[in-house]
Specification:
Blueprint: H1 2-23, H2 29-39, H3 58-72, H4 77-88, H5 103-119
């Protein structure tokens, strides 16, 4: 009986591995290179300290899938980034631009450092 249960567990494990390998995209190398370059510029909305390329979160997988579909549709990297920032805000950018809404993000640490030095 134990051998049958072990055999069933092994079968399930191998099935999962086979399915996972099938899920890996076999795309055009140019699209994959573009994907890599673009997703390294974008932040994972779940992990927040990882790029979209490095994250293994489900949302990151969905975003990579959306980006890949937009690339296949012929959209440029700028159009894809504009779509993502319209949908998720500048937070999705790993290096957000310096503008009025991000001053605190860029200069806040220095202000706290100076303020802390003055208090001490």
């Amino acid at each position: 009986m134990k051998q049958i249960i072990a055999l069933i567990c092994l079968s399930i494990c191998f099935a999962v591995v086979i399915i996972a390998k099938d899920a890996q995209p076999n795309e055009d190398p140019q699209i994959e290179q573009r994907m890599k370059n673009l997703t390294e510029q974008l932040r994972c909305l779940v992990c927040q300290n990882e790029t979209l390329a490095d994250s293994r979160a489900d949302l990151a997988e969905d975003l990579r899938k959306q980006i890949r579909e937009q690339m296949k549709a012929g959209k440029s990297d700028k159009e894809i980034i504009a779509y993502l920032t319209d949908r998720y805000g500048d937070f999705v950018l790993y290096k957000p631009p310096v503008k009025a809404t991000t001053y605190l993000l860029w200069f806040g640490p220095f202000a706290f450092l100076i303020g802390g030095t003055v208090v001490l």
